[in-house]
Amino acid sequence: MYQAVHHIGVAVTDLTAAKTLYGGLLDLKEGPEDLVKDQGVRVKLYFIGGVRIELLEPLTGESAVGKFIAKRGPGLHHIAYKVPNIAKELEKLKADGIRLIDEKPRRGAHGTKIAFIHPSETGGVLTELVEDHPENH
Ligand code: CMX
């Protein structure tokens, strides 16, 4: 069961410049910053309504976001949906034969559990499932 849009991921080349845009010009409420080494990104959150905007700065050109920027330039990277039990959702998708990037959940930013569905299954939009850390609710 998908409960809400959890966040929208935006690939950026320069987090400092992006923070000026999102925190300044757009005046969004600032959230925490985190290093997600596993995903090769530095992540900065902003809040708007019930949705987070997740700015993603690649740590290397070889990371998923680094490759994305090299191929397409900075911009919208993925949509993430909040689910109550990510392991259960992944089992369901697997049983339906959906191509998953992550068959098991892994650690995301801010204590979340995350997994990606391949964009070839979701109309070219990279789709993420997120189970929030209980303290983030
Ligand atoms: N949205 C839509 N399509 C994307 C994409 C994105 N964000 N990133 C890559 N693609 C497309 C590529 O353009 C390519 O399309 P074509 O076949 O039409 O050329 C296709 O996906 C497959 O690309 P690939 O070269 O085979 O594979 P990549 O090495 O580029 O990897 C992907 C693509 C999606 C499998 C990889 O980026 C991935 O594993 N992503 C999940 C992890 C991730 O994105 N982490 C960063 C966010 C971390 C966080 O939120 O915490």
List keywords for this structure.
eight-stranded mixed β-sheet; single chain; 137 residues; 3 helices; alpha+beta; binds carboxymethyldethia coenzyme *A
Heteromolecules bound: carboxymethyldethia coenzyme *A
Q: How are the strands of the biggest sheet laid out side by side?
A: 2-3-4-1-5-8-7-6
Annotation, overall tally of beta strands: 8
What is the distance, rounded to the nearest whole angstrom, between the alpha carbons of the first and last residues?
17 Å
Q: Enumerate the spans where pLDDT stays under 50 for 5 or more consecutive residues.
A: none
Class derived from helix and strand content = alpha+beta
Relative strand content: 35-45%
Helix content: 10-25%
Shape: globular
* DSSP summary: helix tally: 3
The main pleated sheet reads as: 8 strands, mixed
Mean pLDDT: 94
Could you spell the SSE succession in H and E letters?
Answer: EHEEEHEHEEE
Rg (C-alpha, Å): 15 Å
